[in-house]
Amino acid sequence: MKKQFLAAAVILSSLAATAQTYQGTVGRTLAESKEWWPAPVRPPQGAPNVLLVLLDDVGFGASSAFGGLINTPTFDSLAANGLRYTNFHTAAICAPTRAALLTGRNQHFVHMGGFAHYFSSAGFPGWDGRIPSSSGTIAEVLKNAGYNTFAVGKYGVTPDEDTSNAGPFDYWPSGKGFEHFFGFLGSQTDQYKPALAEDNVNIQPDGRHFSEQLTDKAISYIARQQKAAPGKPFFLYYAPAATHAPHQVPADWRDKYKGQFDDGWDVYRQKVFANQKRLGIIPANATLPARNPRIKAWNSLSPDEQKLYARFFEVYAAYLTYTDYQVGRVVNYLKSINQLDNTLIYVVIGDNGASKEGTDEGVVSAKQTPRGNKNLTRAEIAKYNEENIALIGTPESDANYPLGWAQATNTPFKFWKQDAHAEGGTRNPLIVFYPKKITDKGALRTQYGYVTDILPTTLEVTGVPFPESIRGIKQDTLQGTSLAYSFDNAKAASRHNEQYYYIFGSRAVYKDGWKAAVAHHPDFIDLNEFADTRHEVKRDYDKEEWELYNLNEDFNEQNNLAKKYPEKLAELKQQFEEDAKRYHIYPFIDWEDVFTGKLINAQKIKR
Predict the structure, then answer these.
(1) 8 Å CB contact between 193 and 209
(2) Element (H, E) at 123
(3) In percent, how much of the chain has pLDDT > 90?
(4) Which of 138, 155, 221, 577 could hold 150 in an S-S bridge, CB 3.0 to 4.6 Å?
(5) Where is the signal peptide, in residue numbers (predicted)?
């Protein structure tokens, strides 16, 4: 009886997973019946493994793979044997980017217009922070097709009120298709004391650097799976906390760049800009935007300021190189088990542009900032930072570099993370590696892309069909476009031709090379700074001035054409209006709404 019960359970489970209709005959007796078993779920013949690497808070001009001065040999190698996409985009902040990346649908459409956190999620369709089951993730789709699925690192799209050991777990990685997870559920964490979870349990960290722990876990997942089912494809989502603040790095890495950035951020920008031209990453006739007026010229800083600010960036650079090393450990493991050439690898270098959250002075300790102590003056912050320069990068610090380095690592673009109106907030490097499909090794691709394109690209390359339903739930149409058409054709016209952006009032819309954009809070750097002045910076959305750019001729947005082409601007503004309704961007929500308490939801407090 027990054996028969188990067999029936297997059939029911298989039917639920594959949506197959039972085709046997159930009679009154066994003699009158005909057994039937659903076909086992198997991936397409020859389907590759998939490794999706997503870094955090890395500007376009940081890594050596895209002309930066920070060594990233693993990324350089993958790029030299794959493709570098120079016109790829993110949502300008972490959770919206990750939701769009994982689902292949626009961020507001999957309810992630802001963070999944309690303080900024809201009770509206585009904002409640809960990815619907009708928008299955890449993990759910691949698992449905017979892949094993793992995630390590930062998840960032689980509502805060669901993160205890009591769950519910529907919005944890396990509820979204990942069979194993090791990492943290929020937006940032300490690298030595991370808020760790494994599968469906919050656990204690072991004291090692988080990147080392998650890499060990990723390799162990692959090793265990391949031993049990050699050759069975897997999907690994590798999303370290790096290089989001706090910038903490092991001691033996901390001084690898000592003295290398003493020339400062102005010289860094010039060197990177020249590298990018030499590599063909930017147009030969491109010009470097002027330094943002908020940022001081490096040569105007005092010697103590220069010493301090250079140290901030030495540590950040070490952090990025250390992260590249940890990714390299996974790549080298795949090579050692003869799976590297059978793995489709994406490296998205940043979930948004470089972070402006380090304030003008930089952060050594979060308690010694305007947000941590409203009574501090800038002079007192500077004095504390200079006196505690040795703490930068250590487990005792909350290090984040000052704003000047954010502009430098965003070379050649303007503005930063959170600025959805600007390429500096939304354009991030993409590397695609897959030797079986990519023959134009080391080449550049300039086709427009967005994070929603990763899922459809994966389906086309793996041969996995897009499912009509997952676990019996009908699936919404994907909104991304496969990039596979560009693998062997550098001159192919872009197929992703339209995209909106919106982060806390900053917004834009792209269509066929043209872009209309408006900066809602162009000078907002620090949350506390904004909170203190919120009543002074209130803006009327309808009165804000839109700008217009032809990115085909002006890729880094230096020539505002709004007055020259008012009809084109009106057309794009109308497109944004249509997108706002179609994808649930409305109502507009701003940081101001967070600080004034408009998003406080009594029902959430009770949950």
Answers:
(1) no
(2) none
(3) 84
(4) 221
(5) 1-19
pLDDT of 602 reads 33
What is each CA distance from 261 to 68, 251, 296, 298, 310, in whole angstroms?
12, 19, 16, 11, 6
With 0-12 / 13-18 / 19 or more C-beta atoms within 10 angstroms meaning exposed / middle / buried, residue 568 is: middle
Instruction: Specify the pLDDT at position 119.
Output: 55
Angle at which helices 378-387 and 303-336 cross, to 10°: 60
Q: What is the DSSP letter of 336?
A: H
Q: What's the pLDDT at 369?
A: 80
Looking at residue 248, which CATH number applies to its domain? 3.40.720.10
C-alpha closest to that of 430 among 478, 480, 465, 477: 480
Q: What is the pLDDT of residue 596?
A: 61
Candidates 92, 100, 107; CA nearest to 423 is 92
Q: Is-contact 211 239, C-beta < 8 A?
A: no
The DSSP symbol for 24 reads S
> 326 by DSSP, 3-state: which?
helix
Percent of the chain predicted with pLDDT > 70: 91
Task: List, in order, residues 6 or more apart from 170 with CB less than 8 Å away.
Answer: 162
The pLDDT, as a whole number, for residue 251 is 97
Q: What is the pLDDT of residues 115-173, one digit of tens each?
A: 887 656 788 999 999 999 999 999 999 999 999 999 999 999 999 999 999 999 999 99
Residue 33 belongs to some domain of the structure: no
pLDDT for 603: 38
Query: Which residues, 6 or more positions from 536, have their beta carbon under 8 angstroms from its beta carbon?
Result: none
Three-state helix/strand/coil letters over 517-554:
EECCCCCCCCHHHHHHCCCCCCCCHHHCCCEEEECCCC
pLDDT band at residue 550 under the 50/70/90 scheme = very high
**The two three-digit tokens of residue 15, written as one number:** 């039917």
Look at residue 448 and tell me if it is in a domain.
yes
Looking at the 3D structure of the chain, how many domains does it have? 1
pLDDT digit string (tens) for 16-69?
A: 555 678 999 999 999 999 999 998 899 999 999 999 999 999 999 999 999 999
CA distance 102 to 454: 8
End-to-end C-alpha distance for the chain, whole angstroms: 43
Q: Residue 83 carries which DSSP code?
A: E
Three-state secondary structure call for residue 445: strand
Task: Name 372's Cβ contacts closer than 8 Å, sequence gap at least 6.
Answer: 365, 366
List Cα–Cα distances, 378 to 246, 374, 375, 383, 529, in angstroms: 20, 11, 10, 9, 12
Judge whether 10 lies within some domain: no
Residue 16, in any domain of the structure = no
CA atoms within 13 A on the CB side of 7: 7
* Residue ranges making up the domain that contains 562: 49-606
**Distances, alpha carbon 548 to alpha carbons 123, 410, 415, 556, in Å:** 33, 21, 16, 12
Give residue 525's pLDDT: 58
Whole-angstrom CA distances from 199 to 140, 152, 475, 543 are 16, 10, 25, 48
Confidence of residue 595 (pLDDT cuts 50, 70, 90): low
The pLDDT value given to residue 521: 74
